[in-house]
Amino acid sequence: MTTHLPPGPSPSPSPPTSPSPIPKAPPARGRAAVLALAAATFTVVTTEMLPVGLLSPIGAGLGVSEGTAGLAVTLPGLVAAVTAVLLPALAGRADRRALLCGLLLALAAANALSALAPGFGVLLAARLVVGVCIGGVWAVAAGLAHRLVPGASVGRATSVIFSGIAIASVAGIPAGALVGDLASWRWAFAAAGVLAAAVAAALAALLPPLPPEGTVRAREMAALLRTPAVRAGILVIALLVTGHFAAYTYVRPVLERVDGIAAGAISGLLLVYGVAGVVGNFLGGAVAARSPRRALLTVSAVLAGAVGLLAAAEGSAWVSAGLLVVWGLAYGGVSVSAQSWMGRAAPGAREAGAGVFAGVFNVGIAVGAGVGGLLMDASGPTSPLLLATALATLTLPTLTRTRL
User: Fold this and answer.
1) Could you write out the DSSP letters of every residue in 227-273?
2) Are 211 and 22 in contact (CB under 8 A)?
3) Which span out of 61-75, 81-95, 345-359 was modeled with the highest average pLDDT?
4) Stretch 232-240: mean pLDDT
5) Residues 6+ positions from 357 with CB-CB distance below 8 Å
6) Which of 119, 188, 318, 392 could form a disulfide with 303 if both were Cys (CB 3.0 to 4.6 A apart)?
């Protein structure tokens, strides 16, 4: 978390107590550990969003509609949300390095089962395990930067950890779509399983021992919700993420309708989108280090404009491609800006705040993908874009009123 930010005016929960100080990792190992955590966030987000680029072939291969195939995104998101909130308390005194390694190994097994799934029910069962892994990794990894690098580098390290989310859009989702085009969607899940196993090995080798800083209790989570800035952040995260995933989960069918965009070009467009997302992640992190409010205001306004215009641009391939890039640039800043907001709103409750952040984020993913699928099946791919535009616009009054 970006703990170098000064605390805001709102009261925040007292930090959990630790029986003894926990030393930071040596500088070189700390930097390597940050990169390993970025690889972990990249892997879980790639796995979570892999069906986005493969909805059509998954649906065709397992005999379900594209809207129904979207459940492969919705259900893991719901499970991840619950896991992210409960895991910090349930993990107790478990070493966080061992916990992360175990979660990545479970992710590898779930991806292998997805690749071999004989029917949609088995695929969904595997995706439920994926949800546990996603929520666990987010809740633990999001708050570790301050334990790995010196205080002046915490903000940058947090951006690097969260860059795994943006880079997943660059190399993960488009690569999965490309593997699906060249071989099959099953090979895409198999490759994700191999990656998860490799990252588990990297975490075991590069992370230092990470005993918990203190026990997270349910009352600490409840105390967070009494902080006005935390409540405002939860609302903004929920609206932005729900709207984004209502639209982005079904971006492939949207692009397939645009005149002049061939089916084979969609993987390339998603790659360009992801490159823009990486740039947006670091730009958003730089702005959010000074003012999370300004960063989120900018992100919300640009998202509303770009996605709204994309809904009306299906007649032009070039305009649609340009708007997709702007969309990626803006959304790339959401995760790190929102995490910076939560860090400033509750600087004394790192792991609890990370759990709440990850929980709300994944509820947004699940609800967005689910509602988007219903709208897609009922009204076509333009309606999720319109919902995303409306929800991004609704964040602006809250951000304007809240002082942080």
Assistant:
1) SHHHHHHHHHHHHHHHHHHHHHTTHHHHHHTSTT--GGGHHHHHHHH
2) yes
3) 61-75
4) 94
5) 84, 138, 142, 233, 237, 338, 339, 342
6) 392
Q: Could you tell me how many residues make up the chain?
A: 404
Interhelix angle 173-182/185-206, nearest 10 degrees? 140
The two tokens of residue 199 are 């990252």
- 314 or 87, which is more confident: 87
Q: At what angle do helices 27-49 and 185-206 cross, to 10 degrees?
A: 160
Contact 12, 345 (CB under 8 A): yes
Per DSSP, the residues of 354-380 read HHHHHHHHHHHHHHHHHHHHHHHHHH-
Is residue 12's pLDDT more than 50? no
Domain boundaries, the chain: 28-401
Rounded to two decimals, the pTM is 0.75
CATH of domain 28-401: 1.20.1250.20
Looking at per-residue confidence, does 375 or 336 come out higher? 375
Residue 345 contacts residue 230 (beta carbons within 8 Å): yes
**CA 268, CA 272: separation in Å to the nearest integer?**
6
Give the per-residue pLDDT at 387: 96
| 8-state DSSP, 348 | T
